[in-house]
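Re: [ENG-882] Designed sequences occasionally contain unexpected residues at chain ends

Forwarding the minimal case from QA. Structure tokens:
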């Protein structure tokens, strides 16, 4: 989705800055709690967005509504419990986006007249909540290189996990094909859009009480 006005671009930039930074920080922080100090050793245990955000992916997200996050360094081999520690660290990213959406929906519930009375605040809170919901849902799709692929890998029994890992590249091709399709296909054939859109709208309505 292309945005034209400077205000729209600013609001999207703020929302993505918050969502992307906390998403990557959450990966590193939970990995650290699980015993993996790789991210901390690289100076990634911080909320400084310059450390976490991929500039090209961020600009793409602001301008065209689709971008890519950074890559959090997670090493399960350094964790006390590699399997479950890895699962927790990977799941922390999308969970943090959902948490952001919940936190920013609280003022909309408690002080609706303040938020709804300002076009800028309404647009800002709307974008922060909705984009973080989208980031959470998008990232749990079980396709490589999304967090959902790694979550499934950690949850699968050993034999199935080996098969899952062996087909990582095929999963990546499917993912890239769906991304390309989302730009060229009509809405009824946009599989990613179908997967993400309805759950995102329903969750937004549940959190804020607003329909979109």
């Amino acid at each position: 989705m292309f945005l034209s006005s400077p205000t729209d671009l600013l609001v999207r930039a703020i929302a993505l800055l918050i969502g992307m930074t906390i998403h990557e920080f959450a990966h590193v922080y939970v990995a650290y709690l699980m015993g993996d100090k790789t991210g901390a050793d690289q100076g990634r245990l911080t909320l400084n967005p310059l450390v976490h955000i991929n500039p090209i992916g961020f600009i793409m997200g602001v301008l065209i509504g689709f971008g890519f996050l950074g890559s959090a360094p997670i090493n399960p081999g350094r964790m006390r419990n590699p399997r479950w520690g890895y699962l927790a660290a990977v799941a922390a990213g999308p969970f943090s986006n959902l948490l952001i959406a919940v936190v920013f929906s609280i003022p909309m519930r408690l002080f609706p007249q303040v938020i709804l009375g300002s076009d800028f605040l309404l647009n800002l809170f709307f974008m922060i909540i909705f984009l973080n919901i989208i980031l959470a849902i998008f990232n749990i799709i079980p396709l490589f290189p999304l967090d959902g692929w790694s979550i499934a890998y950690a949850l699968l029994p050993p034999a199935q996990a080996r098969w899952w890992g062996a087909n990582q590249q095929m999963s990546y091709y499917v993912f890239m094909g769906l991304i390309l399709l989302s730009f060229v296909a009509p809405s009824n054939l946009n599989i990613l859009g179908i997967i993400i859109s309805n759950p995102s709208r329903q969750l937004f309505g549940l959190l804020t009480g607003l329909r979109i």
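QA comment: On inspection the terminal residues look reasonable. The two ends are 15 Å apart (CA to CA). Proposing we downgrade this to a documentation issue.
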